[in-house]
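Notes to self after the Tuesday call (sharing in case useful).
The group wants a holo model before anyone commits to mutagenesis around the pocket. I volunteered. Ligand is DWN. Logging inputs and output together so the record is complete.
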Amino acid sequence: MKSLVKRVSATRYRIKKCRICHSEDLHEFLSLGTMPIPNGFISKNELSRQEFYFPLKACVCKKCWLVQLTHVIPADIMFKNYLYIPSTSSTVVSHFNNFADAVVIDFNLKSDDLVVDIGSNDGTLLSAFQKKGIKVLGVDPAENIVKVANKAGIPTKCAFFNELEAEMLRREYGEAKVISGTNVIAHIDNLHDLVLGVKQLLSDDGVFIMEAPYLSDLIERNEFDTIYHEHLSYFSVRPLVKLFEMYGLKIIDIQKQKIHGGSIRVFATKKESTLNVHPRVQKFVIEEQAKGLCETQTYDEFTVRVKRLKSDLLKFLKSLRKEDKSVAAYGAAAKGNVLLNYYKLGTEEIDFIVDSISYKQGKFTPGTHIPIFPESQLLKKMPDYTLILAWNFAEEIIEKNKKYQDAGGRFIIPVPYLKVI
Ligand code: DWN
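Result:
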């Protein structure tokens, strides 16, 4: 039977230089093989169609120490019909409410101040600001989700944010007191165009606040499955300092966040801003050096741990099969699809996945073709074990599935280490 897998050649979309400092001295340290776009869930009638597999590898720039993917898949392939809605998770909603509370107080926002959110998705973060009487504007390229946001009363422009777009937004809406970007900056290839756009739109006393998974946590907690085609960059502080300085911006504060397996919230202003630089900014840079984030060995050792994590889980699942135990999964997350494809886990090993997002229910996982059902099916089908693919929400998921555990069901957590509870 003709293979349904269409592997895109390894030379296509390969980068030649670092996206921040343009050095060609890139050290490749991790290969997760080739796999479909991790948010590319497929419907039943697409199961017999060819799927494109793209290389998934990571490298580190030996000049500015930015970790980045070796291949950049064009944004229009990735984001046209994007299936990620943050508002389904109470963890995310409360995280964004706290974000807005803190920013309104810390930067003394007034009702005529404008907050612009880059990659605003369904407007979950902006609605938290809007509820406080702050003017908001979203910018997001995913047509399907922009419709949802506008319908919910969050003014949102369907566009990619860059310098040209920023200039048009400034002309139409005026300068922004706050520009935010949560889990989106890592998705942007041309970071120089992004920073120029921020500079274009931000008021002189304004602040740019970006939040992204933190490289230090990713490496320390073996979070290999957060490395996927959407996430082009994996940030530590050092390369961000360099990027902002190129365009007359300065980092004034950095705050650690627990969300998504460990993130950093970075605050940057124009260098003329009177806002003080918090001493902990320098502390982050020093700590990153001490943790070896500027040494290639750190990344090679990470890959050794990732391979061990894979063999541990595969051995465990094999032992469960020998005992005739049934196994399902929880959370059809993009990271979950990375793990399933890298581990080559399909319907032989995983019977089904349950997920809270209605868009995903009734669909199948890309590459591995595992059916996705509503969460209620977990108790109905009662698999002996359930692999939590959305391990970043393990607490919330386990909390709401006490009945499954009381009935004898057990959860498997795959990251940072294999754990069965
Ligand atoms: O950067 C990104 C991160 C922040 O979120 C985006 N590129 C895409 C996305 O990554 P993801 O797909 O790994 O998302 P999550 O939010 O980590 O995955 C959660 C999945 O789990 C969602 O499909 C919803 C589902 N879920 C569930 O079924 N029950 C989540 C919770 C909390 C639940 O209780």
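Two things stood out.
The pocket of DWN is lined by residues 84, 88-89, 91, 183, 230, 260, 331-335, 355-357, 360, 375, 390, 392-393, 396-397 (CB under 6 Å).
The chain has a mean pLDDT of 95.
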